[in-house]
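User: Protein folding is very new to me. Would you mind checking the protein record under this note? It all follows right here:
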Amino acid sequence: MINLNQYIDKTEDFQIGDEVISVKLPSCNVMAEIAKIEDTNTKEDTSLYYKNRQSVAKALLSFNTANRDFTDEEMDEIPLQAVDNIIKTVMSARIEVGADPNSDSQSQTETSAKLS
């Protein structure tokens, strides 16, 4: 059995000031929003690339358990390295869960019984 709650309940925590934001794994809608942002990247426009990175981080941070939306002004205060770490951390968690969402959910007995 695959426990979908492991997908739904998985979060990565980020502290911003005194606030801790529990960011959920991106949904299909969030990934579609990110794809639209990234589709506008061009090699000739480096400034757009950095603004797009900021927009991707904003989309990820705003998909959180408190339903808190981040503003462009707040995102302007976050350094580039932090923006990159937000993206890397959340996307790595998504890949990790996607690879084996419930590796501990089946007991050895259940697995052995199915093989018999």
Q: What stands out?
A: The chain has six helices and two strands.
